[in-house]
Amino acid sequence: xxxxxxxxxxxxxxxxxxxxxxxxxxxxxxxxxxxxxxxxxxxxxxxxxxxxxxxxxxxxxxxxxxxxxxxxxxxxxxxxxxxxxxxxxxxxxxxxxxxxxxxxxxxxxxxxxxxxxxxxxxxxxxxxxxx
Length: 131
What we know:
The protein is an all-alpha fold.
């Protein structure tokens, strides 16, 4: 699969769109925080919560991983918006579940949630600006 940067460059973007160079370091940090969170949860989860904790983590990870090709390869920005909003809600539920296991694990995910809210707003603006 090939990332289509020309597609993104040609899109009308809102004024709050971060510069392109921000995305790689932000996502690197967010992945580190996500995996630190799941490691903490994996070590501290009561047996009865473990399947739910692992399942919601894997679900958000799959949603996270399918957004990029949907947006940048298939150019389905409306479908990507749906995925992004679903991902954001899933991460919110993940934080709520993780908070029952470890407050630290939940807090590590707050920057991810904030970034996803921004990403959802950005994706929505791109949908509106590029009919």
